[in-house]
Design goal:
By secondary structure, this protein is an alpha/beta fold.
């Protein structure tokens, strides 16, 4: 039995979504990680009354959640590597089930998938179902727009389901980038460990060369790291052999252009890039028009003061504000906003 095609186009007047470490996302419990791989906690927000229901489907599902989630994740990884430029469709099979995918993210399953598996597809397929280069940014923040306290403490702003979502994003991208402040203060690993998936290239944007060599991305040899430095900056001594450096031109204020960073990564073979943090780095890439989609994870938490998430150029009137196409998803207790910035730039 085939279900209807999923993945309808979006409009600004309608919010869509799907049922169901570092930078505020760390989790070191293998038990928690295993449980979250099985129950990602994502589901569509259709209306206010629907949101009050539990994340997992209340009606009996025709198939096992674990099996359907495995199929959905296998389809996402296959779509990531598919030749969409020359082949507009893809069929993925797993056990007795099959998924048909179309360029752009439309899909249907045989037999019908569980809500949790459909949620996984709807939230992530738009990132991998075409041949275009793509830059995705993500931030985890409180209800009042803070990503950390005034001292920089961010463990943990968001819940465990959001951490799993972050690791799925990492696994679907070719490279994951953080700014110098996040690399230094949070000392992230920038790897995929809460799910099974491909490890991305770790990228540290460090125009002034201030990130110490002792940080884990420079010492952990299990994953390649690219250290982006400003011209004239001396690379730190004592980093591992897995670290390569590249020098980029700086402006009068000592900053490297976000577009120059994206161009350098594409020359290195990275078509899909995740800008993971921190707030200043994500804001700079958005302000420069370099981000196609923003995954903003908002936790039911009021910090009241501290470091802001997005800080964009000042505007005088609201008609200058960005009004992007947005989808909303439940992610455990958090809310995921999938924000399409490329459309709002057009």
């Amino acid at each position: 039995m085939s279900c209807a095609w999923h993945g309808a186009s979006l409009s600004r007047s309608t919010a869509y979504g799907t049922k169901g470490d570092e930078s505020g996302y760390g989790c070191d419990s293998p038990t928690d990680a295993l449980a979250l791989c099985r129950h990602p906690g994502l589901r569509m927000i259709r209306d206010v009354s629907d949101r009050a229901r539990p994340c997992m489907s209340e009606s009996p599902a025709p198939r096992c959640d674990d099996t359907d989630l495995a199929l959905a994740w296998h389809a996402l990884e296959t779509a990531r590597d598919h030749a969409w430029k020359t082949q507009a469709s893809l069929r993925v099979t797993f056990d007795s089930a099959a998924l048909s995918l179309e360029r752009g993210g439309r899909w249907h399953a045989e037999p019908t998938l569980t809500d949790a598996a459909g949620a996984l597809l709807d939230s992530l397929l738009p990132l991998v179902c075409d041949s275009d280069p793509r830059v995705v940014a993500q931030l985890g923040q409180s209800l009042d727009g803070r990503i950390a306290t005034h001292s920089g403490h961010s463990h943990y702003v968001n819940g465990v389901e959001s951490r799993v979502h972050l690791h799925r994003l990492r696994a679907l991208m070719d490279a994951v980038l953080v700014g110098a402040g996040t690399a230094d203060e949070d000392d992230p690993q920038l790897n995929v460990r809460h799910i099974e998936g491909r490890q991305p290239l770790r990228v540290v944007l460090d125009p002034r060369g201030r990130v110490p060599a002792a940080r884990r991305v420079f010492q952990d040899p299990t994953q390649a790291t690219l250290h982006l430095l400003g011209e004239g900056v001396v690379a730190p001594a004592g980093v591992g052999d897995h670290v390569s450096q590249r020098w980029l031109a700086r402006d009068a204020e000592g900053r490297v252009s976000p577009q120059a960073v994206i161009d350098a990564l594409r020359q290195a073979g990275c078509r899909r890039v995740l800008v993971e943090g921190g707030g200043q780095t994500v804001s700079q890439f958005i302000a420069a028009g370099c981000v196609d989609r923003l995954h903003l994870l908002v936790a039911p938490l009021l910090i009241g003061s501290g470091r802001p998430g997005l800080t964009l150029p000042i505007i005088d009137t609201l008609d200058q504000a960005l009004r992007p196409v947005t989808r909303r998803f439940d992610c455990g207790d958090d809310t995921l906003f999938d924000i399409v910035l490329s459309a709002s730039r057009g």
